[in-house]
Design a protein that fits this description.
- The complex is a heterodimer.
- By secondary structure, chain A is mainly beta.
- Chain A is built from no helices and eleven strands.
- In chain B, strands 2, 5, 6, 10, 11 and 12 form a six-stranded mixed sheet that branches. A four-stranded antiparallel sheet of chain B has the order 3-9-8-7, with no helix packed on it. A two-stranded antiparallel sheet of chain B has the order 1-4.
- Classes of the chains: A mainly beta, B mainly beta.
- Chains A and B meet through strand 5, strand 9 and strand 10 of A and strand 5, strand 6, strand 10 and strand 11 of B.
Chain lengths: ~110, ~110
């Protein structure tokens, strides 16, 4: 079974802190994704990566950056956390190809105070 | 651009009732279509998928048929259970611009009462 794990289920940070969210997948997937999920807005893509050291902006990249140094690991970085970044963050991975589904991690609920 | 529209919830049903959650899409290419389910406190799990027109995806009693003529992928189940209470997301994947992106609907919350 594919497993996608995220470093924390719950995280509380203060405004202005640098925050790292880590995601690891164990199925050698080429693609990895970071979304945020907010009530009424569904899932919004922040960044995705289709290869090591490659990244592309999604729909809402402002205030975020990412790092993919190894194929299995994709990190989301909030350079200076703000209260409007309080959200559920979901990581996903997939094989390359339009017919392949994504596999999701359990999510990290981040609260910025 | 590509988009997915699904019916707003919440949908509240009694146990053993018939379920339909509507989903329509717009896409320029030949997308694959998916239904995901999210149980409370968890990430999304794939429920079923269809990769070409007229394909029917099915799993755990749920079904959806890829209808190109109506650009729809409605989710159905003949008899829901309390354990089906969750949020359901319709999604498509497309290979526009050479990279694979997934577009999600906003989700439909289903509540099944005993």
């Amino acid at each position: 079974d594919v497993k996608v794990t995220q470093s924390s289920r719950y995280l509380v940070k203060r405004t202005g802190e640098k925050v790292f969210l880590e995601c690891v997948q164990d199925m050698d997937h080429e693609n990895m994704f970071w979304y945020r999920q907010d009530p009424g807005l569904g899932l919004r893509l922040i960044y995705f990566s289709y290869d090591v050291k490659m990244k592309e902006k999604g729909d809402i990249p402002e205030g975020y950056s990412v790092s993919r140094e190894k194929k299995e690991r994709f990190s989301l970085i909030l350079e200076s956390a703000s209260t409007n970044q309080t959200s559920m963050y979901l990581c996903a991975s997939s094989r390359s190809g339009v017919s392949y589904e994504q596999y999701f991690g359990p999510g990290t609920r981040l609260t910025v105070t | 651009g590509n988009s997915v529209t699904q019916m707003e919830g919440p949908v509240t049903l009694s146990e053993e009732a018939f379920l339909t959650i509507n989903c329509t899409y717009t896409a320029t290419g030949y997308p694959s279509l998916f239904w995901y389910v999210q149980y409370p406190g968890e990430g999304l799990q794939l429920l079923l998928k269809a990769t070409k027109a007229d394909d029917k995806g099915s799993n755990k009693g749920f079904e959806a048929t890829y209808r190109k003529e109506t650009t729809s992928f409605h989710l159905e189940k003949g008899s829901v259970q309390v354990s089906d209470s969750a949020v359901y997301f319709c999604a498509l994947s497309d290979a526009g611009s050479g990279t694979y992106k997934y577009i999600f609907g906003t989700g439909t919350r289903l509540k099944v009462l005993a």
